[in-house]
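Quick log. Single chain, no ligands specified.
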Amino acid sequence: QPRPDWSPALLRGLWPALAATLTKRGRTPAHEAAWLGLAGYCLRPGFGWPHDEARLAELWRLRALGLAFPRDPAVATQAFILWRRVAAGLPAAHQAELYERWQHPLRSADAPPELIRAAASLERLPPATRRDLLARLLERLPRLPPAQLDPWLWALGRLLARVPLCGDPATILPPDCLPPILAVLAKLKPRVHTPGAAAALVQAVRCSGARSLDASPEVQTAARALLTRWQATPAQLERISAPLAPDATVWQQLAGDRLPPGLHLSVSRH
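-> predicted structure:
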C-alpha cells in the first residue's frame, strides 16, 4: 500500500515502536533524521485520532532529551518538519517553549525554510507574539529573491488563516492585521510564485462567516482584484465571498501535508 494511503489507524499503530526507540535514534545522523521524519508523518496533524494527546506527551520527551546530532542539516530540517506537523496538537505552553528556543535562528537572515513554516504553525502562541512574527514576515518578504519566497508565503497564509487548523477561533489574528499584506503581496512580480501568493491571500481573507474575524469589504474587494490579476481559480475567488466549509485542499494547505485518509477535521463555529 503506498504510504500516502496509510490509514490513521496504521500510522498511529506504528507509534509504540517509534516511542520505544526514541532514546535509540542517535546511532547516526541518518538514523535520527529517519526517526524524526517517520514520527512526524505518523502523528500528523497532532490531533484527530483517539489518544493523540497521550502520544504527543510521549513525543514531548524529545525536547528534554534533545537531538543527538543538532548540527546535522538533515536532522535539523526533519526536527522542524516534525514540530510543524504536530504543532496543532501541542498545548500552548509547549508551543511557547518551542518558539522561545527558536528565537535566535528566526532572527537570522538565512533562517531555514522549515523553521519559518514551523514557527507559523504555532497557533496557540499569544496574539502579541504572533503579531511580532507577522511583522517579521512582512518585513522580509519584499527582500527575498523569487526562489526563496515559497516557505515565507506559506507561513504568511498559515499565520493569517481565517480557519485555524486546531479549530479554536481564539487563535485567529484580528482583521486589522490584514490590510498590510495586500501592499506587500501586490509588489511581488506578477509571474513569480503567484500560486503561493494567491493561496496565502485566500487563507487570509477567506470568508469564515464570523463578522468579527472576516476581512472588511474594502479588503475583500482589493484582495479579489489582486487574485483576478493573478488568474486565481474560481474556487479561490468563491472562498472570499461565501463561508464555504474547508475541503481537503484547504486542510492540506494549512497542515502543509496531505492528511491521513479517513481523518476528518471540523471547523469550530464562531
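The chain has a mean pLDDT of 91.
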